[in-house]
Amino acid sequence: MIGYTKRIDFLKGIITTDRDGVRQRLTNSNIQDEDLDAILKYNRNIQEKIAENMLSMTSSMKEQALVANAIIKKDIGALESSDKLTDINAAKLKKESLKLEEHTNSKWRCWMWIMIAFVLVVFFKLHTAMSVLVKTPVPPKTTWKPGKVKVVRALCKYNAQRAEELSFDEGDLLYVYDRDTDPDWWRAKCGDQKGLIPVAYVEEQTQEIELPLHDAARRGNVSFLREYLKQGISGTGLDAAGNTPLYWAARTGHLECASELLNLPNPVINAQNKMGDTPLHVAASHGHLEMINLLLEHDADTTLKNNDGFTAEELSSDASIRNAIQLRQRRYDSTYGYGDEDYNDGDDSD
């Protein structure tokens, strides 16, 4: 009986415990529902505030866009007005400029013709007065200067890059006749062709021929001598000792080269070098009788003395040369009033 009662009490305790747990679970469930409602309500409030802020920002942006649009339209209108005003002013300025130019030209044209007429009258009066008063001037004394044409030999071929340039092959002779117009380009001739050649090429790819006319006369190369003269090399240029090309032709006895040089407009046959020697001096001292006769035919002066005080006749040990010079001197003196008694022929027996 006691054991049965204990069991009954035990079961009652279990039932009581189960009821308390169910009540506790129901209480906890109610608390959770209340928290969820609070969270949902809070989220809803937040969303409503965000929506209100977005609507406010949208409204503000719309107002600002309308204001900006109005400002842009106003600026565009001002620009269009400025463009129209600029066009109008430009047209007026052009019109006034044409009027001013026409007015200026008409006045200056009249003054210009008056000045031209005045200058012409003064010029003709001065010309007439000078032609009456001024005598024909005496030609200046001939001076011998080195030739201005530079002769170079091409070391390699060059093809022109432009129409005004000069093309040439390796070994061609180039005659540079203008080195002052352009510092980077020189004007030159090659055969019958003329054109520009680059200065850098001439300095690096060519070999200069020093005193080409002197060299040709000394070597007796008459073909080169003629070519040099044709290309503008001066026939009266001087070397370092003051010698002309004719001097070298006379010294070496090259008659053909001497003839070409003597046929120049101004052959400077009596040019003296730094030692005072003329072509006649050097031809006489080297015994070139035919050269002496050629020089005498072109009126070489037999009376000139060098720095040592000797004439060409006195420098020669050849009797035929001395006789030729003396004969020329007699003919000259007979023309100007000298006789044979003025000569001492005692040296002819030599």
TrEMBL record:
<comment type="similarity">
    <text>Belongs to the USE1 family.</text>
</comment>
<dbReference type="InterPro" id="IPR002110">
    <property type="entry name" value="Ankyrin_rpt"/>
</dbReference>
<keyword id="KW-0931">ER-Golgi transport</keyword>
<dbReference type="GO" id="GO:0005789">
    <property type="term" value="C:endoplasmic reticulum membrane"/>
</dbReference>
<keyword id="KW-0728">SH3 domain</keyword>
<feature type="repeat" description="ANK">
    <location>
        <begin position="275"/>
        <end position="307"/>
    </location>
</feature>
<dbReference type="InterPro" id="IPR019150">
    <property type="entry name" value="Vesicle_transport_protein_Use1"/>
</dbReference>
<keyword id="KW-0812">Transmembrane</keyword>
<keyword id="KW-1133">Transmembrane helix</keyword>
<dbReference type="GO" id="GO:0016192">
    <property type="term" value="P:vesicle-mediated transport"/>
</dbReference>
<dbReference type="Pfam" id="PF14604">
    <property type="entry name" value="SH3_9"/>
</dbReference>
<comment type="function">
    <text>Induces bone resorption, acting probably through a signaling cascade which results in the secretion of factor(s) enhancing osteoclast formation and activity.</text>
</comment>
<dbReference type="InterPro" id="IPR001452">
    <property type="entry name" value="SH3_domain"/>
</dbReference>
<keyword id="KW-0653">Protein transport</keyword>
<keyword id="KW-0677">Repeat</keyword>
<dbReference type="GO" id="GO:0015031">
    <property type="term" value="P:protein transport"/>
</dbReference>
<feature type="transmembrane region" description="Helical">
    <location>
        <begin position="110"/>
        <end position="134"/>
    </location>
</feature>
<dbReference type="Pfam" id="PF09753">
    <property type="entry name" value="Use1"/>
</dbReference>
<protein>
    <recommendedName>
        <fullName>Osteoclast-stimulating factor 1</fullName>
    </recommendedName>
</protein>
<dbReference type="GO" id="GO:0007165">
    <property type="term" value="P:signal transduction"/>
</dbReference>
<keyword id="KW-0256">Endoplasmic reticulum</keyword>
<dbReference type="InterPro" id="IPR036770">
    <property type="entry name" value="Ankyrin_rpt-contain_sf"/>
</dbReference>
<feature type="domain" description="SH3">
    <location>
        <begin position="147"/>
        <end position="207"/>
    </location>
</feature>
<keyword id="KW-0040">ANK repeat</keyword>
<keyword id="KW-0963">Cytoplasm</keyword>
<dbReference type="Pfam" id="PF12796">
    <property type="entry name" value="Ank_2"/>
</dbReference>
<feature type="repeat" description="ANK">
    <location>
        <begin position="241"/>
        <end position="274"/>
    </location>
</feature>
<dbReference type="InterPro" id="IPR036028">
    <property type="entry name" value="SH3-like_dom_sf"/>
</dbReference>
<keyword id="KW-0813">Transport</keyword>
<keyword id="KW-0472">Membrane</keyword>
